[in-house]
Amino acid sequence: MTQAAVRKLIFEGRNCKGVEFVHRDQKFSVEAKNETILAAGAIGSPQLLQLSGVGHSDHLKHHGIAPLHYLPGVGENLHDHLQIRLQ
User: Whose CB has fewer CB within 10 Å in the chain, the N or C terminal residue?
Assistant: First the structure.
């Protein structure tokens, strides 16, 4: 489906069973038959994990997200790589 945006992952215990997404201002959820593969890039993947409750508990609570799985490394190593090239 094009022009759809995933809003969060749906977990059953510690297993991701599907995704919740928005398409044309309507909310949908789909469940995977076998597995869910998260491939949203270096910025999108940690963001979706955190929005779904996976990450550092204090950070999630600060943003009003109920912690599901304490995994403090999620999103922690994201840095700007500013480069200045002199010639």
Answer: C
Contact, 40 vs 75, CB < 8 A?
A: no
Q: What is the 8-class DSSP label of residue 87?
A: -
Q: Choose among 52, 48, 54, 86: nearest CA to 73.
A: 54
Q: What is the C-alpha to C-alpha distance for residues 36 and 49, in angstroms, rounded to an integer?
A: 13
Q: What is the pTM of this model?
A: 0.83
Answer whether 44's CB lies under 8 Å from 29's CB. Answer: no
The one-letter amino acid at 23: H
